[in-house]
Amino acid sequence: MLKLREKGSFSYLHLMKSNNRRRFLQTFGTGMVGSLALPNLAIRKNDSSPIIDLTSQKTDNSEAYWELVKTQFVFAPELRYFNNASLGASPIYVQRHTQSCRELLDGFPSKYMWGGWKDEKENTRQLVADLLKVSNEEIALIHNTTEGMNLIARSFDLQPGDEVILADHEHTSGRVCWEVFQETKGVKLVRPTLPILPESVEEIVEVYRKAITPKTKIISMCHIVNTNGMILPVKEVSKMAQERGILVAVDGAQSAGMFEIDLHDLGCDFYTASAHKWIFAPKGIGIFYAREESQHYLKPLIVCRGHRDTSIRRLENYNTRNLPELLGLGAAVEFCNQIGIEKIHQRSYELKNYFRSKIAANPALKLKTPAPDDLSAAIQVVEVIGQEVRELKEKLWEEFQIDCRPMSTFGLNAMRISLSIYITKADIDYLVDALISFTK
C-alpha cells in the first residue's frame, strides 16, 4: 500500500521533469481530495474542479484568460474577495499538492519529516530564489514576515544611542520587534513621517535622507505599506544607505508575488515575506532573503541540532515543522510560473489602472493611494465620502458579499482594495457599482 501511495503521490519536482505534463495534471485533478468543512460557512467542493495547465496560454492576455485563472481558486459561494492583502487564497493546484504531501507524511511520518523530502525542499528553495532573482544560498524558508522581522531585529548587538529608522507606516510586526529587542537597550527608534500621497519617488527618499544621522545603523522599511498600498523606494534608499555603511531590512509581505522583483537590483541586505499573500502558498510559510555579504550578522531565533551550519539554512532549523506547507510553497511558485511573473506584473497594473479609471470622475469616491506606477500597484485605497469605513465594510458584506479591509489609521477612513490575479474587470465593475450605491 505504501509503495502505491508513494508512486501515486503528486510531486511538482517530478512534474517539472515530466515530458507529459498535461496528462499528469489531468490525472492528478480527479477526485484526490475533498474540501474541508468550515463552521458556519458553506464552501464549494473543489474535488471535482479540474486543474488547468496555464503554461500553454502564456501569450493570452484576454479577459477570458483571466476568467480561466479565476476558476483555479475556490471561494465561498457568492463571495467577492478583495482582501488578498490580508490573506491570500491557495489555488486548487496548491491545495491538492499540499494535501497529497500531508497524506504521504502521515503514511510514513519519520521518513518524510527527517530526510525523505530533502531534494524537494531544496527544489522549493531554488524556485523561490529564481522568483526573486537571487542565489538559493541566500534564501531561508521560514514561517512568515513576523518571524523574519523578529530574526533581523534580535540579531544585532546595537548599543545605547545607536539609531534604527522606522517610518510611521511600518506594520506592527515590523515595529514591535525593534521596540522589544533594541529600544529597551537604549537604541533610538527614529520614526519619520511619510506623505500619504507623494507625487514622486524622490519625495519619499528625502524623508529617509533627512532621518539619517551619523548614529544610524539600520533602516527597516516596508516595500509596500499595508495602510494605503504605497510602494516605498527600496532601491533608492538602499543605495543611499550603502554609501553610508547602513544596513537595510525590508518587509516584503505585500510585494512578493505582486510584481517582478530582483532583490539584487533592489540592493537591500534583508527581505522577508509571507508567501500566503500574493504567492498563494499555504498559510504559515514564509521567505527570508539575506544578501550573501550580510548573512554573518544574523543569529537564528531557534537553535537545535545543526546549529553549527554556516549556511543560511541555520535560520530555519526547527527540527519538526509542517513540511507539506513548505512543499506547497514550491507548488505555489510553480503555479505563478505557469502564468508568468511578467504577466502577473502586467495584470497588477492593468487592474490598478482600470479600477482608478472607473472611479476617477466620481467626486464622492476619493482615492488615497499615490497614482504613479512606481508608487503603487495592486493595492488601492478609496474613501466613500460621508461613510464611516468600518460601517461601510459591514454594508459591503451584508448587501453585496464583498470582503475588503477598512483602513482608519492616518485619517484614511478608506477601504483597502486588493486586486489579485483572480479578480476580473467584471469583479471590479461589481465593486465600483457597490461603492457608488453608498454615495447616493
Descriptive overview:
It contains 16 helices and 13 strands. Helices cover 39% and strands 12% of the residues. A hairpin with a 6-residue loop joins β12 (405-407) and β13. α5 packs antiparallel against α13 (323-339), α7 crosses α13 (323-339) and α14 packs parallel to α16. The protein has 440 residues and is of the alpha/beta class. The strands form 3 sheets. Strands 2-8-7-6-5-3-4 form a 7-stranded mixed beta sheet, with helices on both faces. It has 2 domains: 124-336, Type I PLP-dependent aspartate aminotransferase-like (Major domain) (Aspartate Aminotransferase, domain 2, 3-Layer(aba) Sandwich), CATH 3.40.640.10; 341-437, Aspartate Aminotransferase, domain 1.
| Termini gap | 64 Å
In helices, the fraction of residues equals: 25-40%
CATH architecture term of the largest domain:
3-Layer(aba) Sandwich
CATH uppermost class of the largest domain:
Alpha Beta
- Helices and strands, in order, run as HHHHEHHHEHEHEHEHEHEEHHEEHEEEH
Provide the low-confidence segments as ranges. 1-46
Instruction: Report the count of strand segments.
Output: 13
Overall SS class: alpha/beta
Q: What's the Cα radius of gyration?
A: 22 Å
Mean residue pLDDT: 90
Please give the oligomerization state of what you see: single chain
Major sheet size, sense and barrel closure:
7 strands, mixed
In DSSP terms (H or I, runs of 4 or more residues), the helix count works out at 16
Q: How do the strands line up in the largest sheet?
A: 2-8-7-6-5-3-4
Count of separate structural domains: 2
Give the CATH superfamily of the largest domain: Type I PLP-dependent aspartate aminotransferase-like (Major domain)
Q: Within the CATH hierarchy, at the fold level, what is the topology of the largest domain? A: Aspartate Aminotransferase, domain 2
Q: Name the shape in a single word.
A: globular
